[in-house]
Design a protein that fits this description.
Layout: E1 5-13, H1 16-27, E2 33-35, E3 38-43, E4 46-52, E5 64-70, H2 74-87, E6 103-108, E7 114-119
Parallel strand pairs: 1-4, 5-7
Antiparallel strand pairs: 1-5, 2-3, 3-4, 6-7
Protein name: VOC domain-containing protein
InterPro entries: Glyas_Bleomycin-R_OHBP_Dase (IPR029068)
């Protein structure tokens, strides 16, 4: 993977309010964006996200929801999908783009960590 770059990480949390207070009041003092049960903060060119896990209020040994790798173009994603699907044949085709969010697909590492390969090329979002 020569053209990809690590762009964001998503953490699960049962303490969305405390997390928001920490990141906005203590650490960054700036909120990038917020949706219901979801916070997103820009740290330089890297994005840290927090997703409230309403089904799990205690155990967070699997705290990482997913890691995002961003590519420049749709063609880059298609090339990566072709390459990766030769080794992992049961992954879903890329989805999104053209006003439907990033064009992306997901793979999972041996530890169960979900990895999103995406591009915002051609997306109006």
């Amino acid at each position: 993977m020569r053209k990809g770059k690590l762009t964001h990480i998503v953490f699960k949390t049962a303490k969305i309010g405390e997390t928001q207070n920490f990141w906005e009041s203590i650490l960054l003092q700036e909120n990038r964006s917020q949706q219901e049960n979801y916070l997103s903060y820009e740290v330089g060119s890297f994005i840290v996200n927090f997703l409230e896990d309403i089904n799990n209020r205690g155990e967070f040994s699997n705290i990482i929801s997913h890691i995002g790798l961003e590519f420049s173009t749709i063609q880059d994603i298609d090339i990566e999908f072709k390459r990766v699907s030769e080794t992992l044949p049961n992954i879903n085709n890329p989805v999104g783009g053209a006003g439907k969010g990033p064009y992306r697909f997901y793979i999972t590492d041996p530890n169960g960590i979900k990895i999103e390969l995406e591009t915002w090329d051609g997306s109006s979002d």
